[in-house]
């Protein structure tokens, strides 16, 4: 009972980078299970400045020092706190853990498992909607054949034996069979009448039942891991159990039907019929085209993807689409509804990763190999934030084979970071060597030019190539990316297969790098983007490398968009720089000399790209190619956008069919396959 007394006192709380650590008066309310804080003790009678629910929270002493600890609430909110010494930290941590355990157990006792509910699809004529057909099951295990068992209070959970896991697997197999029957029953319903196969509730049931099976398989996999660890010993300290991608395939779940076009076929506008009437493939000039940067104008297009209206209106279409998909299915050949599209091509999205050309050019200004590697890591981590347009996760247009995108950036030389000790001169003799003829006539300009070109070099598999160069600084980056997308239940995962190569010709250095995976989460509600996976950056010549981890949010606790990494000198196996933070917010770089640098991505200046007007673009340049789709999306005319998109895709299929029949290989324009 002594341990359950309320405690209070001053602690330091980390607020943000600007404010830093501040003293606040904290109160642990054991009865309510709350941790509250006030500006000072005198304001204790006022409303708290902040409150955390401790039920389900995780209290973690920090490894940084002996004074700091964190309180991670089940809601995802986190307090980072610091006591005056190790003894006081232990006092607060132990009391918080006792209170947390007490209220977490209380929730379990006060909330017994829900009784099962089942849908009756037999008496279709007796009601208008499944909503009134829901009834309590006579048997609590009738639907999934899995019962809820309450353990007697005080008894320890026994170690699960292998035969118990077999029993669980058997029950899950039965559940999968029942779910397949449920799906068939729904799909056999008529398309009109009181109860149809497109009923909102039934579509929701189809989609969420599949997500439930995915969740059950994840949980089963966790049980297997725990059983394996119990055979060898306990899980190592600090282990985080995260949501896993499906490890167990749902056996013959349901076949993916013919490619669905959404919305249903309607009379095609005359303009679309004209687009589709081009039966013969366009005779494209496959010779590389020299783009004059002087024809490019600063881009004024600013299509932020924050509109939820279309997603809300088309929810039944999303549900119907999800009900047709299978876990782990490759989405490359699946026709997705138009309203989830961004108003730009994937090729243009790659260009938007270059929105900080000052940081890109500054890489080669580093005076040492170590500094150049660190500068590249800094540029790399700042590139993803601007690549996303708004908070809503939408999908760029799938580029048509042969599609290209050109743009450039002009960067005032005075805004590019240089080193005081650098002997680089804008007119040094080393600049006489050039990458192309563009350098002539530009010696007196007060800005650098970064040129960019991207091309869709393959349709199946979908592979894009992109290249950027700054001729004046003798540096270029060349990359190819194969986007492999998979359906993961309530999210979509995109693996970026490929490699990039940054060349600093002035130093004779080449840096290879890879790209993280991307995930569209919560696709039934407000979809958002998350990056995940480990990427590596290597420079063989200098022996420096970087390892960067994009952390997906764990199932329990943790923060969003977290990234950590380190730069190493491989020969001496020493870490010269560490980085942590969020890839879309604030990054913290800590160097070997003890210095720390913060980069706030939300305040970084963005240089607008320069693009030629539509009338000067070729027919297969992204913006001109997709202009009718983009205009229709801006006008909110989803049907018209769908028809224009379908016409482009149909033309691509016809051209591909003709090449296959005539055994004509596809010729790329700017890129060569090695």
Automatic annotation (TrEMBL):
Top-level taxonomic group: Eukaryota
Record field: compositional bias (Polar residues): 117-132
PANTHER family: OXYSTEROL-BINDING PROTEIN-RELATED, OXYSTEROL-BINDING PROTEIN-RELATED PROTEIN 11
Keywords assigned: Acetylation, Endosome, Golgi apparatus, Lipid transport, Lipid-binding, Membrane, Phosphoprotein, Transport
Role, per record: Plays a role in regulating ADIPOQ and FABP4 levels in differentiating adipocytes and is also involved in regulation of adipocyte triglyceride storage. Weakly binds 25-hydroxycholesterol. Interacts with OSBPL9 to function as lipid transfer proteins.
UniProt subcellular location: Golgi apparatus, trans-Golgi network membrane; Late endosome membrane
Gene Ontology BP terms: lipid transport
Protein name per Swiss-Prot or TrEMBL: Oxysterol-binding protein
Pfam families: Oxysterol_BP, PH
Residue ranges constituting the PH domain according to the UniProt record: 4-101
Catalytic activity line of the entry: a 1,2-diacyl-sn-glycero-3-phospho-(1D-myo-inositol 4-phosphate)(out) + a 1,2-diacyl-sn-glycero-3-phospho-L-serine(in) = a 1,2-diacyl-sn-glycero-3-phospho-(1D-myo-inositol 4-phosphate)(in) + a 1,2-diacyl-sn-glycero-3-phospho-L-serine(out)
Oligomeric and partner information: Heterodimer with OSBPL9.
InterPro entries per the UniProt record, alphabetical: OSBP_sf, Oxysterol-bd, Oxysterol-bd_CS, PH-like_dom_sf, PH_domain
Protein family per UniProt: Belongs to the OSBP family.
Ranges where the record places region Disordered: 104-132, 637-656
Keyword Transport in record: yes
MF term (GO), any: sterol binding
The keyword Amino-acid biosynthesis is annotated on this UniProt entry: no
One GO location term (cellular component): Golgi apparatus
